[in-house]
């Protein structure tokens, strides 16, 4: 099985649910836009094949101050160095269609961000074709001490510190994807890879074959979906 480790930087803060707790669609007008995509393709032995590192040229949207404070991207930089969003999406889609399993530190965030951009471009969102592995959620089993001292999911920096990974290019899509790859390799070596699966906002579709409980062995398998039944409400 081959893997595509991805990371996205965006124009603003993403919303999974509104104030009432209702899931917000990926392509809702209030959602941020893709500003930077990093992808590292690896083979079955987790050896790097090639990488993709693309900025996106704004097509009417602007970077929000909160996002700039995190990733340092400006409207001017993106206008000069960014590619058309459809060209970026075409490369992403080719990766999915080639059978690579998506891996990300926060896979639900990154996959939802890409899903929203595909929908805005009038392209198939590849929802069912994008089973993914989240190394952030998998890392919870390690009970990593967070620098903040709080609970919940660890930050990328926390997991890197735990494994002794030198992560310098912080909050760049390429740099964060590379850090996620190093974490992925260590989880793989420890036999801690979960089943790659599609994540639904509500309940799984009918006739879905549930993956094994807990963590699998050193290889990841994809949950099989038979007679897939889905509604837009399940695939936010």
From TrEMBL:
Annotated Exonuclease domain residues: 2-193
GO cellular component, one term: cytosol
Top-level taxon in the UniProt lineage: Bacteria
Pfam families: RNase_T
EC category name: transferase
Enzyme Commission (EC) number: 2.7.7.7
Gene3D superfamilies: Ribonuclease H-like superfamily/Ribonuclease H
SUPFAM superfamilies linked to this entry: Ribonuclease H-like
Entry protein name: DNA polymerase-3 subunit epsilon
The organism of origin for this protein: Aminobacter aminovorans (Chelatobacter heintzii)
């Amino acid at each position: 099985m081959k893997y595509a480790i991805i990371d996205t930087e965006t124009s603003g803060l993403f919303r999974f649910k509104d104030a009432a707790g209702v899931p917000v669609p990926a392509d809702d007008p209030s959602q941020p836009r893709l500003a930077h995509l990093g992808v590292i393709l690896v083979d079955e032995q987790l050896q790097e094949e090639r990488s993709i590192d693309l900025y996106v040229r704004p097509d009417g949207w602007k970077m929000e101050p909160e996002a700039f404070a995190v990733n340092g991207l400006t409207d001017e930089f993106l206008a000069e160095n960014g590619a058309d969003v459809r060209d970026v999406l075409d490369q992403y889609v080719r990766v999915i269609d080639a059978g690579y399993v998506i891996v990300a530190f926060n896979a639900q965030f990154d996959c939802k961000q890409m899903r929203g951009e595909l929908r805005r471009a009038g392209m198939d969102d590849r929802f069912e074709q994008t089973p993914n592995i989240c190394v952030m959620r998998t890392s919870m089993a390690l009970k990593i001490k967070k620098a903040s001292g709080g609970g919940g999911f660890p930050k990328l920096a926390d997991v890197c510190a735990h494994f002794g990974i030198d992560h310098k290019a912080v909050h760049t899509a390429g740099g964060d994807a590379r850090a996620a790859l190093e974490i992925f390799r260590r989880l793989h070596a420890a036999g801690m890879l979960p089943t790659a699966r599609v994540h639904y906002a509500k309940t799984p579709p009918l006739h879905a074959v549930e993956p094994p409980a807990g963590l699998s062995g050193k290889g990841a398998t994809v949950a099989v979906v038979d007679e897939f039944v889905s509604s837009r409400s399940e695939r936010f």
